[in-house]
Write a structure and sequence with these properties.
mainly alpha, Arc Repressor Mutant, subunit A, disordered C terminus
Amino acid sequence: MVGVDDTIEIASIEHKSGTNVPLLAVLSCLGLLGGLILAFLPRPRTAPEAAATHPAITPLEPRSLVTPPPDLERLNHFLADNYCREDLDLATVATELALPLRRITNLLNGNGESFKATLNRLRLQEARRLLLETDLQVSEIAFKVGYGNVSHFNRVFRERFETAPGALRAALQNPSNPVQNLQTGESDKDPNEIN
């Protein structure tokens, strides 16, 4: 292979009798030979040229620091649409989103919540809304937001809102003194609530 520093040296050009080779023809052949050599030599490429010849190489574009990664956006949409499924667990989410379990865990931990905490937060926000805006029984709300066990729902709800679901509903429906209702435990037992 011809390297960058290789040169071609022509010692002499002989003219054979009977042929008439003009000097210009010889120089043209030498120019053609030099062009062929240069065509096969490696040359540095610019970034746009490299990206055009190698589709896998794309120039980086600046991204906003507040834009969530596409996987996190997909995960958030999926959880918002499916939190009410009783069978929803980390393995199911990973399978349905075609993401590794570790990736989902890392994305949620980056937001400061575990999978279980995120799922409970979404479920309890909806449960609170349903308590305020509907006349559904507490047990119906528990099943509607994805809890298969009403006692577990009551326990998780109480941990989050520091009151039972029935007591929260009663306090918010009796705006005369909701704080007193919550503190004294009045209406703590909802006749619709299953323990």
